[in-house]
Amino acid sequence: MIKSISYSQEEIIKNILELHSKSGRIDCDPTYSKGYFYKDTGIEKPGYKFDINPQIEGVIEANAEKLPLSDCSLNTIIFDPPFLATTGRSLSKVDNSNVINKRFGVYDSELALFRFYRNAMEEFYRILTPEGILIFKCQDKVSSGKQYFSHCFIYNTAIELGFCPIDLFILLSKNRITAKWQLNQKHARKYHSYFWVLKKCNNKTLYSEVIKDGITEDGISSTLNAQGPSAVATPTYSSSKASFFTAAEEELANTLVATDYKDPPLINDTDGTLYTVRRLTPTECARLQGFPDWWCSDLATENPTMDDLRTWYNIFETHRKVTGSSTKPKTLKQISKWLKDPHSDSAEYKMWGNGVALPCVYFVLSGIVFSIQDTAE
Question: Which of 73, 201, 318, 352 sits 20 to 30 Å CA-CA off 155?
Fold first, then answer.
């Protein structure tokens, strides 16, 4: 009976290959280091050995985020990246300080570390064949009194990219290196790490990511379109400030208003297993008004001409006078900077709230035209 826990990573890797690898061997190790996975373990060395800083002969210098391999070319990849992040000065000292960080390698910040994880996983997804396997060794940590559950981040990212988590093994440790400053304990010392087994399944489960004002355009499936592979049978409910968020309409969106940038309408969302409530995105508001998704894309003017600047100066100045604003007129430098990046979610919410539904306008105007033509005849 193969168990999910072990004190031997050799045993875990062999069990993973037995259960999940079609070939029973590892094709690529992009963080090979000195090849500890394969030294006197009976595990066959991979055909492709890479490392950002090769330490032994036969290992090719390459970044795991961009490997010199073809699309859909490998069946099994094992990934054992750094799990620590710090910028401590002790890293450059030749002494016994910061032993763990010096031994395993580090990134400058958790953000950089997790970005590396994501970029590498995207690259592995490209390289793996359909139903190919990624074995991802990872470890949670505590840094500056804060927990970083890396295995949870990896799980969510894997699902988003199109991997199916099909197994999870836990490597236990009887002893751990402990620094002197860690004696003032506030969290349980971690005596384990993980081996995720992720299958390339092309079955993306998209989660919303909180990156800007709590809202993002990336990673959100269309809940207003009941067609295609993202369709779900669950009814969509919508609520907005029009009802003070006290009522929800089934399959009916509330009227968009200019102040939605403060509190966008709410809708329910599901990936088939997880049920959530989230805000409408600006793109979804565009769809409700009958406009294409790209309507607010590519608005930037990288090198505005003097005519561009004068035109927009007059527009801003007219608006300032009409509204009776006491603010100073915008300078050409301010306008030039704005033209290079004019978009914001808040401005887009206001625009859709102040606008009208394009299909309704088209219907009314078409009716007027038809009536005029009919009368003329």
Answer: 73
